[in-house]
Structure formats: C-alpha cells, structure tokens
Amino acid sequence: MDLNDELMQYIVGCIFPKYEKYYSHGMTHINSVITNMMMLADYYGLDKNMAYTIASYHDIGLNIDRENHEKESAKILKNDSKLKKFFTEPQIGTMAEAVEDHRGSRKEKPRNIYGECLSDSDRDFDVSILAKRQLATSLKNYPQLETFEDHFERCYEYICRRINKSGVFNLWTSNPILIERRDKFQKEYLNKNYARSIYKKEWDRISNDGTKEKIINYYEDY
Ligand SMILES: [Fe+2]
Ligand SMILES: [Fe+2]
Questions:
Q1: Distance between Cα 204 and ligand 1 center (Å)
Q2: Which residues, in sequence order, are bridge partners of residue 169?
Q3: Which among 121, 145, 162 is the end of a domain?
Q4: Which residues of 168-191 are buried (b: 16+ CB within 10 A; e: fewer)?
Q5: Cα of 36 to ligand 1 centre, how many Å?
C-alpha cells in the first residue's frame, strides 16, 4: 500500500514547517525517523499512512513543554481535525498512544507496536549525530554547566542509562538492520575516550562557527 497523496501533501505543507525553528529536532531528525519508521512498517506489515503520520508528529510539541513533549505532540495529533479525513477514531487513538510512548528514557514497553517502532526509529545509533543533537539539548537545558567536560559527562551518563538488563542499548523491536546498527554503535560508544573525541570535535565546531549562540538564542526546541 502506498502513502495517501493528500495526507502527505498536508503533512509536508502544514506540519513540517513547524520544525523550522528546531535544531536537534529539525527536519534532518524527522526525516531520519520517517525513514526508519517506514522500514519497520514494511518489516512488521503496519499501516504506512499511520507510520508516516506518527513519525511526522512525534516531536512537534517540543516548544510547548520539553519535559512532556511526547504528551503535547500526542495532543496535537489527536486534536488535528484534518486527520479525521484519513483515519478512523481508533486509528487516531493508536497513533496518539504511540507518540506519547516514544521517549528513549521510558522504561515501560510502549502500549502498541506503532509505539515500539516509533521509539526504536527515534534512536540515534550514530555517535556523530548523537553528539550533535545531544550537545545542543544539553546547552539549552543545562546553562549552569560551563565546560565541555561537564556537558560531555552529563550526556554520556544520560545515554548509558538506556542500557537494559541484558547489557545492551534497549530496542523494543527485533529488526535485524536496527540491531546491527545498535551493536556497531554500542561498541563505539562504550569506548568512552572515542566517544569523548567525537563530542569534542562537535563542541569545537559549534563554539567556533556561531552555532552555539544560535542554539541558545534562536532555536526553539529543548
Ligand atoms: Fe522526542
Ligand atoms: Fe525524536
């Protein structure tokens, strides 16, 4: 089944522009989540329109309330009357639940398969991408931290909390492509000196090219 043209046009025209002033959660991130999500939708035989929609809406509530952005994003999806043209009430309920359950810090399994796939699609199993997104989030939310070392230690500790009881970075689904990506990432990331060197490179870049100031003063996502 292909994506509904009208739905896609609506999302591209009216939802994507809302990510314009987001940095860590801008369109590069959203497009990467969409790509992963469509791969998982294919693998698990899920509804492609639902998969595309939840990936597109999942971080939209970030400028409202970071700590509860998953709930704000779910609310925006649920209250979007335009979506009623494309989905049934139960489908909208399933999608809202999935968006609400996407956080990587969440310890309980998402309530439905769409939520499991969305959460796994949202993971950055790439040290450079993670460094870029996480340092920005850290600068925005922890202005009291002064040095690179302070930010790096906080970031590193935060991500390591996602290692589950089996000793691996948690995944809810078992798609072989994501597992392979996770395993490669895990090997690199747990070499802390290597991870630090990648974060430091990114830190120096954003300190020297004005991006750091822009993250703090211009971008709206946290
Ligand atoms: Fe998120
Ligand atoms: Fe996200």
A1: 26
A2: 163
A3: 121
A4: ebbbeeebeebeebbeebeeebee
A5: 15
For ligand 2, a single-atom ion, which residues have Cβ within 5 Å?
A: 59, 122
Facing residues of 163 across strands?
169
Asked whether residue 143 is domain-assigned, the answer is yes
Q: The pTM is what?
A: 0.96
Tens of pLDDT, residue by residue over 63-105, are: 888 889 999 999 999 999 999 999 999 999 999 999 999 998 8
Give residue 86 CA to ligand 1 midpoint distance, Å: 24
The pair of three-digit structure tokens given for residue 155, joined into one six-digit string: 């970031």
Domain end marker among 72, 87, 121: 121
Distance 103 CA to ligand 1 centre (A): 6
Rounded CA-CA distance 25/220 in Å is 10
